[in-house]
Amino acid sequence: MLTGKKPGDVPGINPYKLMSLVESANSVDVSAFTKGVAAFTARVEAAKEAIDTATTQAQIDTAYNELNDLINFMNVVKRYTNLDLSSLPNGEEVNKTAAAAEDVIAKADATSEEVKQAIEALDAAIAALGSYSLKEVYEDKFYIGAAVHLNGLNDEKYTKNLLTHYNSITAENDMKPDALLDKAESQAAGKVVCNFEKMDQ
């Protein structure tokens, strides 16, 4: 007969969240880390051991947090490790900090404190980059273009985004033949007549 928990019963260990994380860790793409991912491998193994041998929920939770934090950190490092930011203020510092983070990830014996410090250093370097538009980032390389729908220019948010990030625009559907052709005038004149009044505005 099931009676449920009695007063004073201690909850059992729940490893299922950690088990799910370990399973998902198998699909983490580590190809961008040319120096290796020994810290990641070590934490996966530690998590597996915790699932098998942990005697307290705290041990399970610690293994989960250490592996989850490292996976999230690796995802951030991957975005910056091969990105040339040298043209931006503090960009070289981000590249340098990302390289240092790779060194930590490559260490099998990397401590939680080392990982924490690497996370904080990269977060600080990225924050110091500030905010830049696409056209500013690539201004000395090429134009950033966008296909523009003229009706969108009536939308303040759309227009602001357009002016912030792009320095070359092309009319989307509004420059197509069916938009420019004045059918009535063409039929009356016996030749093709296009109306550019809307585009000239």
Short description:
This protein is mainly α and 201 residues long. It contains 10 helices and 2 strands; from the N terminus they run ααααααβαβααα.
Which percent range describes the beta-strand content?
A: under 5%
Range of helix content: 55-70%
Which class do the helix and strand fractions yield?
Answer: mainly alpha
Number of helical stretches of at least 4 residues: 10
Q: How many angstroms does the end-to-end distance come to?
A: 82 Å
Oligomerization category of the chains in this entry: single chain
What is the total number of structural domains?
A: 2
User: How would you describe the shape?
Assistant: elongated
Q: Return residue spans where pLDDT drops below 50 for at least 5 consecutive residues.
A: none
Cα-based radius of gyration, to the nearest Å: 28 Å
* Whole-number mean pLDDT: 86
Number of strands: 2
Main beta sheet, described? 2 strands, parallel
Compressed to H and E, one letter per element, the order equals HHHHHHEHEHHH
Q: Taking strands numbered 1, 2, ... along the chain, how are they ordered across the largest sheet?
A: 1-2
How would you summarize the topology of this molecule?
Blueprint: H1 16-25, H2 38-53, H3 57-81, H4 91-105, H5 112-129, H6 134-137, E1 145-148, H7 156-165, E2 168-171, H8 177-180, H9 183-189, H10 197-200
Parallel strand pairs: 1-2
Overall description:
With 201 residues, the chain is mainly alpha-helical. It folds into two domains: 16-130, no CATH class; 136-200, no CATH class. Helices cover 56% and strands 4% of the residues. It has helices at 16-25, 38-53, 57-81, 91-105, 112-129, 134-137, 156-165, 177-180, 183-189, 197-200, and strands spanning 145-148, 168-171. The chain has a two-stranded parallel ribbon. Helix 1 packs antiparallel against helix 2, helix 1 packs parallel to helix 3 (57-81) and helix 3 (57-81) crosses helix 4 (91-105). It is elongated.
